[in-house]
Amino acid sequence: MADHRQSPELLKSPAVLLPSKSELTKISEDLRLKCTEEEINAFHEHFKGTMKTYQRVNEIPEPQLPVKYPRTPGHREAKDSAWYWRCDIKGADTGKLVGKTVGVKDNVAVAGVPMMDGNKQLEGYTPEFDATIVTRILDAGGRILGKTACEDLSLSGNSWTPSTGPIPNPHCSTRSAGGSSGGSASLVARGEIDMAIGGDQGGSIRIPSSWSGTVGHKPTFGLVPYTGAVPIEMTVDHLGPITRTVADCALLLEVLAGYDNGTDPRQHPCIEVPPYSSLLTQGVAGKRVGLVTEGFEGIDKGVCTCVREAAHLLQEAGVVVEEVSIPLHADGLDIWTPVCFEGAYNMMIKGNGNGQNWKGHYCLSMQEALARGYNLRPHDFSMPCKLLAVFSEYMARNYQNKFYAKAQNLTRLLTQAYDHALRTYDVLIMPTLPSTAMALPTTETSISEILHLTFAMIKNTAPFDSTGHPALTINAGLLEGLPVGMMLVGRHFDDLTVLQMAHAFEKIRDKSLSLYLDFLCIYMYICTIKFNL
Q1: Do 149 and 55 have their domain in common?
Q2: Do 402 and 473 reside in the same domain of the chain?
Q3: Helix, strand, or coil here: 436?
Q4: How many angstroms separate the first and last alpha carbons of the chain?
Q5: What is the mean pLDDT of the chain?
Q6: Pairing mode of beta strands 83-90, 75-76
Q7: Residue finishing a domain among 7, 34, 59
Q8: Model confidence at 8, in pLDDT bands (50, 70, 90)?
Q9: Residues 314-351 pLDDT 10s
């Protein structure tokens, strides 16, 4: 029988090693604190007690995100670069998404399925938890078919940086599918899945949706919980739907949206989620649309013409379409840049995907995996990641967060500028991107050209990540066989009006296309008869 008499405490591996006095002295010198020898000795003795508190924190079990549905790990996809990993996870038997197949961008955790976020350093990591939106998809009856490939740490608007290889555009294999959610948009456009999850910090839902011809919606900031996804910068992080139709977009948003019980500090408890899908067809007659003059500046002429013509089609639905000037929009990308660059460096890279100073759920295993990868092979960063790290470290050493702070202050002015226009107009419209899909870089493309291709398309998309307004892209038409995106922007938490306006346009567009095809068929039939005669 076991001896239950009191015995010495078993030896435990220490969670944190006690620093030596020489290490404390070196830190003091590096920080220019000029600590005395007496102070160093006192600190060393004091830290013996502090180490015990860290040991206890290490031993207490932490709360976990739930995993509710069985699954197998699946397999790595080798034949289709738009997928990172294939799996098949069946959700509930009933719900709004029953019969719908879904792809999850690989910056979002799915328990038991490997996760890479396009990044070599994270390869081999398998999360033990489901992101909140994954649980919501499965609770609604959705069927997850895999993780969609994305840019390295989601830091590119092109589709050439995934560690698994470039993602070609579904309409032209030599052109970009767009980033960073390129795999999601490509698979939806090709009909491989019904809907997909994208992430958006500078346009990463709307860019690939615009270039692939799908519907991509960046929801109002905080409407959809980010819990369980790799962040870039907390104040610009968004997750949202990519679909082929506005109806599916509204349906998926309805499932994803809502408060996450305090796990995500991007949210507040008063979020209301209307039944987007059932209210979609209420009509938009009498509503007003403003074509943002500055949003058409610096844009390819053909793209401008396509978007303007598409926007004016809304008049058939009783919408008033007018020009509106928002001068500060021209500075929107400049305001976004310090926040996203320096913020991403501090949160995603130096902060190992979590950062600090916020309340909510910290994905600890993800943080540990990123820290290991970054420290083991920092040279494996993609070129855009290296650019961000070098530039942001320079700014930190020489300007001590000054421009990040000022840009956050200027974001309030930018938000007010859009809000002022949205008092008059229900929706703002502009081209999503400056051009149709860019060519993918080749071995002959210079580094300077490649860097230009990485961020050259975010002039109109990035500002609304800063301000958090809902912004949706829908295909306005084709230009030389490639899709052109039209972006609709609405008031905060009025995603419904944005969806309704997009749905109204979609109906008019598809009706016009149907009439055109009918006319073409009749014309060809007449020509055939005439030729036969």
Answers
A1: no
A2: yes
A3: coil
A4: 105
A5: 94
A6: antiparallel
A7: 59
A8: confident
A9: 999 999 999 999 999 999 999 999 999 999 999 999 99
Q: Per residue in 446-490, pLDDT tens?
A: 999 998 889 999 999 999 999 999 999 999 999 999 999 999 999
pLDDT tens sequence across 355-365: 999 999 999 99
> What is the signed CA dihedral for 364, 370, 374, 379, rounded to 10 degrees?
180
Whether 531 is in a domain gets the answer no
CA 265 to chain centre: 17
Which phi and psi angles does 176 have, rounded to 5°?
Answer: -75, 145
Q: Classify residue 2: in a domain, yes or no.
A: no
Beta bridge partners of 101: 143
CATH code at 332?
3.90.1300.10
Q: Are strands 101-105 and 168-169 parallel, antiparallel or unpaired?
A: unpaired
**Contact of 505 with 289, CB cutoff 8 Å:** no
54 & 95 share domain: no
Question: Residue 364 corresponds to which tokens in the numbers above?
Answer: 């600890």
Alpha-carbon span 249 to 12, nearest angstrom: 52
**55 shares its domain with 80:** no
DSSP letter string, 165-213 = ---EETTEEEEE--SSSHHHHHHHHTTSSSEEEEE-SSSTTHHHHHHHT
Active site residues: 105, 180, 204
Specify if 375 maps to a domain: yes
Whether 42 and 120 map to the same domain: the answer is: no
Q: Are residues 315 and 264 in the same domain?
A: yes
Q: Residue range 237-261: average pLDDT?
A: 98
Number of domains in the chain: 2
| pLDDT for the residue 530 | 64
Query: Distance between CA 419 and CA 490 in Å, rounded?
Result: 9
Residue with tokens 């349906």, as numbered in its chain: 251
Contact indicator for 114, 122 with CB cutoff of 8 Å: no
Same domain? For 267 and 321 the reply is: yes
C-alpha triplet 168, 169, 174: angle, nearest 5°: 60
Mean pLDDT of 265-286: 96
Name the pTM for this structure: 0.92
Full residue range of the structural domain in which residue 27 is found: 21-59
Question: For residue 57, what pLDDT is reported?
Answer: 92
Strand order from edge to edge, sheet including 471-479: 75-76, 83-90, 143-148, 101-105, 195-199, 239-243, 215-218, 471-479, 482-489, 427-431, 288-292, 320-324
**Cβ-based neighbours of 193, under 8 Å, separated by 6 or more:** 101, 102, 103, 145, 187
Token pair, residue 400, equals: 């001590």
Looking at the fold, whether 79 and 53 belong to one and the same domain comes out as no
In a domain, 332, yes or no: yes
Contact 223, 271 (CB under 8 A): yes
Phi/psi at 213 (5° precision): 85, 20
Per-residue three-class SS string for 247-267: HHHHHHHHHHCCCCCCCCCCC
Q: How confident is the model over 301-324, as a mean pLDDT?
A: 98
